[in-house]
Design brief:
The complex is a heterotrimer. Chain B is α+β, with helices and mostly antiparallel strands. In chain B, helix 1 packs antiparallel against helix 2 and helix 2 runs antiparallel to helix 5. Chain C is globular. By secondary structure, chain C is α/β, with parallel strands linked by helices. The chains are: A alpha+beta, B alpha+beta, C alpha/beta.
Chain lengths: 190, 177, 127
């Protein structure tokens, strides 16, 4: 049987449906999104997750926390007009995790890593102080900090999650690297 | 894996509220990106039918079965965009003994011309086509009619009793005249 | 002076700044496309109000969720209110938070710590 051109075109997406499903199941990923992160999208993702939590009869304190963390994670996405970011939400019996993935300039990778490592050493009191400091710096909402990442959002996430921030960098080319940041909510810590 | 073209993927239980919130998200997303109104409408309609179809398959599964690879009635929903098409992929577990029948139906749908699909649809609706469980095939015929393209499918063996059934519907981004 | 009224959307809060009764209200969500664009008219309005404030102003914040770029703008609003308060025109702020939302409560505490302004935290009990 000779496959026609159109049949071949049908191949790719379908062929990874099962591996993708398995991967999501194994990693407890309930949702992945790829594209520009606009406020409208944020609202829609929140409402989708809200139903999911409602179906799971999740504790309201945990739900609120997850929402607050999602809202802030989303502000770490690439510039919404031209950028494409990746969002991942994971749901496990004992934790939720929200990840944001995006490109950052390869030249700032070490700086970002150093900042995250430093944030992860801070006590809750120190985090509060640093957050207050960042809140009071001028230039109201321009993404300042390193490589287009608003550092105040990272501080805010560290504070809200009561856990260390998990991160990964992947080198793409001399210009860009892929950066992902996961904030977790351990249910027994809330 | 070529994930570049994927817009979103959902894995989990599909309840009515969840489905409506996912549809809302897709609608807003297409709206926000200024997709052609007709294309938007077709993507939406095809998605609704695909989700309906998933329900149908999940309902046909035995409620409690230790050999079911997943405890709950979970499914995969994926939507993506390529240069010429949107693609909507749903995935769910089916019993292996359902596969020959499903395959036969899908192949028959894919062989049919536009006119024949319409006929087939009416036959199934009136209970003369697709021998048993009349409306089971209706959803897939409807998806094929609304998509205007052939359906892609795949059965991935999971264990001696179950396979993972993925169904792909495409919607052209080039609006019809 | 005209009141400023902004209706809420699913991403921006409802804003009511009523200079007749000295009652200001911010309620809903704040994740605007352009935070400065949204908050600037509010700053301008407050700067005008600061020239002739009422002896008493009561400000209610009843927010569902917001991001840090909104937090900065809310701080700017509160700073303006702080200045009015310091000039001898009483300003009272009530910061409402859902009893299950520890982050919103903490944000209220942040503002208490950062400002010289009476901010009362008030819990909303879920029905």
């Amino acid at each position: 049987m000779v496959a026609s051109q159109s049949e071949l075109l049908h191949e790719p997406a379908l062929s990874y449906a099962y591996p993708l499903y398995r991967n999501m199941l194994d990693n407890s990923i309930i949702f992945m999104y790829h594209g520009p992160i606009t406020p409208d999208l944020v609202v829609d993702v929140l409402s989708m997750v809200e139903y999911r939590l409602g179906d799971a009869k999740e504790d309201r304190r945990i739900s609120k926390k997850l929402f607050n963390i999602m809202v802030e994670s989303f502000s770490l996405g690439e510039d919404q007009r031209r950028g494409h970011s990746v969002l991942i939400v994971r749901q496990l019996p004992y934790l939720y995790a929200v990840s944001i993935g995006r490109r950052i300039p390869s030249g700032v990778v070490y700086q970002v890593k150093a900042f995250l490592d430093w944030v992860n050493t801070l006590s809750p009191e120190q985090l509060r102080e640093e957050y207050h400091r960042a809140l009071q710096t001028k230039e109201a909402d321009k993404p300042q900090g390193i490589g287009g990442l608003p550092l105040i959002s990272i501080l805010d996430l560290a504070r809200k999650s009561h856990d260390v921030l998990h991160y990964a960098f992947e080198y793409l080319d001399d210009e860009d690297s892929f950066f992902s940041l996961e904030a977790r909510i351990q249910k027994n810590m809330i | 894996m070529q994930l570049n073209n994927i817009i979103f993927v959902y894995q989990g239980e599909v309840t009515a509220d969840l489905v409506s919130s996912i549809l809302q998200m897709v609608e807003n997303k297409l709206e926000g990106e200024g997709e052609d109104r007709k294309v938007k409408k077709r993507v939406f309609n095809v998605m609704v039918e695909c989700l309906q179809n998933v329900y149908h398959h999940l309902d046909a599964l035995p409620p409690t079965d230790p050999s079911n690879p997943v405890r709950d009635k979970t499914a995969l929903l994926m939507i993506g965009r390529e240069e010429k098409d949107y693609f909507i992929i749903t995935g769910n577990h089916v019993l292996n003994d359902r596969i020959p029948d499903l395959k036969a139906r899908l192949d028959r749908i894919n062989r049919a011309s536009k006119e024949e699909l319409k006929q087939l649809y009416q036959e199934v609706l009136t209970g003369t086509g697709f021998s048993e469980k009349g409306t089971a095939g209706l959803g897939m015929i409807d998806i094929a009619r609304k998509s205007g393209q052939r359906l892609g499918y795949d059965f991935h063996p999971v264990n001696e009793k179950y396979s993972f059934f993925s169904l792909e519907a495409r919607v052209s981004r080039i609006p019809e005249k | 002076m005209e009141a400023l009224r902004i209706e809420s959307t699913h991403k921006t809060p409802r804003v009511i700044l009523d200079p007749e009764n000295g009652i200001f209200e911010f309620s809903g969500r704040s994740i605007p496309e352009d935070a400065l664009g949204f908050y600037n008219p509010i700053f301008e309005w407050l700067d005008k109000y600061a020239q002739q404030p009422l002896p008493r102003t009561h400000v209610r914040f009843d927010l569902e969720y917001f991001n840090t770029s909104s937090s900065k703008n809310i701080l700017e609003i509160l700073k303006r209110l702080e200045a009015i308060h310091a000039s001898g025109h009483e300003v009272r702020v009530t910061w409402f938070y859902d009893e299950d939302d520890e982050d919103m409560e903490e944000t209220g505490q942040d503002y208490q710590a950062l400002l010289n302004l009476p901010i009362e935290l008030s819990v909303k009990v879920q029905s």
